[in-house]
Each structure stands twice: as structure tokens, then as C-alpha cells.
Design brief:
about 425 residues, Rossmann fold, 2 domains, 10 helices, about 25% strand, binds 5'-O-[hydroxy(phenylacetyl)phosphoryl]adenosine
Length: about 425
């Protein structure tokens, strides 16, 4: 059952809502954010030129760097007195990207998250164990507001303290676990070490997000914990978690709340829209954000959009799950590939644990790629045999041969308990 009517509305109704909200957003951005006024003046576009979403490509795009350049509050469209909350997303370099919310913005976010949880199958009588980080990161707060708005119970434990997570999960009977995909696997591993069968833990749904998760990784989560794994997508610049989520009925693409966030897919190199159904970079325009309206944000995330009605009855657009970012693309001796493609291949191999790392170096002006893969605890093959298998599969499926491939013993690759997992280390 959909949480709001718009989720199953006619496409024309969805369009009408988008058109009206886009006009409001553009008026707000133009009137109150100098950055956007200047960009639009330069392009010769006025708010009156934007009558519908068909006009969206006339608008300027916003990039990650713009958030940094406008640090701390250059993108705010309201006076500080109207701001109720500030979050920030820290990259590896430079200033954090600051985002702000008015009271209405927080209500919109809470509703988008409540919808998302309902779409994932969360019921008001469920207990949601929230193991996303609290603080400037939007994960903790986003899940909390959503669960509270839906009327579910929430355990705000945050990331880390894994033994305590498991103890409280068992004692309180948590129905839903919300955390990164990598952390859910760590919880399973730790539970096993503590003498539990992870399949017997009370959780029946894991809502994972904030990191890419390939299909074999999802299968591993579902199998190890005996759960339904639901992919939740979002980003701070747009709102936080709650931009899109899979439905528990079909688990076939993420329903993107396009009445609040208008999506486009563009060619990452040219910025031109791709044909419907083609893969490209997701670009989002906020439709209901007062404190920080964002026009055509280049998310860097690669996906496709699907406007067919879902098995669950929702008509709202679906996006493919994001397994790569445009800037993650590895170019190795003329072959382009995403780290997720490597993950896809290696996790399908028996005896491989869901832990690996990719190290990139430059030696003698050549790019060198080193791959480290962890052996599964119950592996039947020894490490030498496994190395041959992994090597052959990568070559057969991707025509890719790493410069070095090391198979390490179970537990050798560092686990991430708090924050996002890092698997690619670029030393160039
Ligand atoms: O990661 C918000 C979030 C919190 C989403 C909790 C889901 C759950 P940021 O820290 O700003 O916000 O990072 C956003 O993370 O552009 C993607 O590259 C990546 N990302 C987020 N969700 C997914 C996902 C939060 N489900 C950036 N699959 C985004 C793949 C994801 N990548």
C-alpha cells in the first residue's frame, strides 16, 4: 500500500505537480540566491521562461564544487532565522558541503522518508534499529524522522558498537535494520563470532544505502541474515536519504519521489540528456526545498530511469540501483570499468568473501591496478587455486587482468563499522 496518493497517480497528475513546483523553485532560486541569478542571467533565462519540466534543460546545472565555492551559506535562499537544521557532507578534500532546511523542508524530508520506509514494508508496529551515523551525516536523522513520522518505533543506536547492536537487536526484537550494506555484513559476521546464527536474528528487513551495493552483495546480505534487502538512495545536497527506495513487493528498481525531486539522466561527458531508458548520470532538481533550492544537481551517480508502472502498482518513476559513480570509472590499459563490475564478478565465485580492495598506483608513467580479495571462511579451495579462478573469471567476463592479485586469509581486510566503506585506494 502506498503511503501517499501521488505514488500511484496518473503520469499527467504527477507532471502537473512537478510543473507547478518547478516554477516555484526557480522563482525562489532566482529571487534569493545570487549564484543562481547570475548563472541564469548569463544563460539569458528568466523564471517566466520555465513553464514546465520540459523547460528544465534551459536551467544551469549545479556541481559539487559549487557547494564548496559557496561555503558556508552562499546557496541559502532564506534568512538564517528561518533555518531549523544544518547538515554537512564531507568529501575527502576541501570544505564540507553545507545544506540547510526550514521547518517545511524538514517536514517534506520526513514525509519522503516515511514514504520510503512504508515502501520498504515497514509497519507502524515495527521496531527500526537505526545504525546509520548521527551528526552532520544525514543518515541517522533522516531515518529517525521517517520512522517517527510513519509511527514506527526507533532505536537510535547509530553506527558502531557492534556487539551492543547485536545484543539489543536480540533483546528488543528489532524488525528492521537500517545501515550501510557493508555494515550489515559485518553485523552478520560479528554475530556468528558471538555464537549466534545470523539467520536467527529477529530482523526481517535490512534497509541499506549510502554506498553502492551490487546484486551479488545484496544476495549475500539476504542469505547471511535471512532478510529482504531494500536499497535506499539519497544524497545530502538534495535532502539526505529518502530520494528513492525499492519496494518490498518487487525489489525491481528504486521508486524516486519525483513529485519532490525531479530527475534527469544525462551523458556524463557532454551533459546532454540521454534517450529514455539509457544509462547516464543522474541529475536532480529539488521541487520542494525552500532553504536550499538546487537546480539540476549533477549527482555523479550512474543510473537509468524507468517510467513503466511497477508490479507494486506505483506509477512513480524508478531508477536503477546505483553501482557506480561517473568519477569512479577506472581506465586500465584502454579498458574502462567500474569497481562494481569487478565486485559483480568476484562475489559470484564460491570461496570468495564479500571483502576486497583495489589499489591504484602510477609506475613508470603507467597505471597499475592491484586487487586484493579475501578468502571465505568455509572455502573449499586453497588460496593458490582461488587466485587462478579469480584471475580467469575476471579475464573471461571483463577482459581485465589486474597487475597483481592477492588472495588474503579470512578477516584480513579491514572492516568498516562507522561511516562508508572504502574499497578503492588511489595512490596516484
Ligand atoms: O549517503 C545519504 C544516505 C544515507 C542515503 C543513508 C541512504 C541511506 P551523502 O553522504 O551525501 O548522503 O552521500 C551521497 O552516496 O551521491 C551516492 O554516490 C552514494 N549513495 C547513497 N545511497 C546510495 C545507494 C547519503 N543506495 C552519495 N546506492 C550519493 C549507491 C549510494 N550509492
Amino acid at each position: 500500500m502506498a503511503y501517499t496518493e501521488i505514488e500511484t497517480a496518473d503520469r499527467s497528475e504527477i507532471r502537473a505537480v512537478q510543473n507547478e513546483r518547478l516554477q516555484e523553485t526557480v522563482r525562489n532560486a532566482y529571487a534569493n540566491v545570487e549564484f543562481y541569478r547570475e548563472q541564469m542571467d548569463e544563460l539569458g533565462v528568466e523564471p517566466a521562461d520555465i513553464e514546465s519540466v520540459a523547460d528544465v534543460t534551459k536551467l544551469p546545472t549545479t556541481r559539487k564544487e559549487d557547494f564548496r565555492d559557496q561555503y558556508p551559506d552562499g546557496l541559502f535562499a532564506v534568512d538564517h532565522s528561518e533555518v531549523r537544521r544544518i547538515h554537512a557532507s564531507s568529501g575527502t578534500t576541501g570544505k564540507p558541503k553545507i545544506v540547510a532546511y526550514t521547518e517545511d523542508d524538514l517536514a517534506v524530508w520526513s514525509e519522503a522518508m516515511a514514504r520510503s520506509l512504508a515502501c520498504a514494508g515497514v509497519e507502524p508496529d515495527h521496531l527500526v534499529q537505526n545504525a546509520y551515523g548521527y551528526g552532520l551525516f544525514t543518515g541517522g536523522a533522516g531515518l529517525q524522522q521517517g520512522a517517527e513520522t510513519l509511527g514506527a518505533a526507533l532505536l537510535p543506536i547509530g553506527g558502531g558498537q557492534t556487539e551492543k547492536q547485536i545484543e539489543m537487536m536480540v533483546d528488543l526484537g528489532s524488525d528492521v535494520l537500517a545501515c550501510t550494506p557493508s555494515y550489515s555484513l559485518y553485523i552478520a559476521e560479528k554475530a556468528e563470532q558471538l555464537g549466534h546464527d545470523p539467520r536467527d536474528l529477529p530482523v526481517s528487513t535490512v534497509i541499506f544505502g549510502a554506498e553502492p551495493c551490487t546484486e551479488p552483495m545484496r544476495e549475500e546480505i539476504e542469505r547471511r541474515l535471512d532478510v529482504t534487502g531494500i536499497d535506499l538512495y539519497g544524497l545530502s545536497e538534495i535532502v539526505g536519504p529518502g530520494v528513492a527506495i525499492e519496494c518490498h513487493e518487487a525489489q525491481d528498481g528504486l521508486h524516486l519521489w519525483e513529485d519532490r525531486f525531479y530527475p534527469e539522466v544525462v551523458n556524463p561527458d557532454t551533459g546532454e540528456p540521454v534517450e529514455e531508458g539509457q544509462e547516464g548520470e543522474l541529475v536532480i532538481t529539488t521541487l520542494s526545498k525552500d532553504a536550499l533550492p538546487v537546480l539540476r544537481y549533477r549527482t555523479g551517480d550512474m543510473t537509468t530511469l524507468n517510467y513503466d508502472q511497477c508490479e507494486c502498482g506505483r506509477t512513480i518513476v524508478r531508477m536503477d540501483n546505483v553501482t557506480g559513480r561517473a568519477d569512479d570509472l577506472l581506465i586500465v590499459r584502454g579498458i574502462n570499468l567500474y569497481p562494481s563490475q569487478i565486485e559483480d564478478v568476484i562475489l559470484e565465485i564460491d570461496d570468495v568473501a564479500p571483502y576486497y580492495r583495489i589499489d591504484l598506483y602510477e609506475r613508470n608513467n603507467l597505471d597499475v591496478i592491484e586487487l586484493t580479495v579475501e578468502q571465505d571462511e568455509d572455502a573449499q579451495r586453497d588460496r593458490d587455486e582461488l587466485q587462478d579462478v579469480v584471475f580467469d573469471r575476471l579475464d573471461a567476463v571483463l577482459a581485465f587482468t589486474p597487475d597483481s592479485l592477492e588472495i588474503v586469509e579470512p578477516g584480513a581486510i579491514e572492516r568498516t563499522e562507522v561511516g562508508k566503506v572504502k574499497r578503492v585506494y588511489d595512490h596516484r
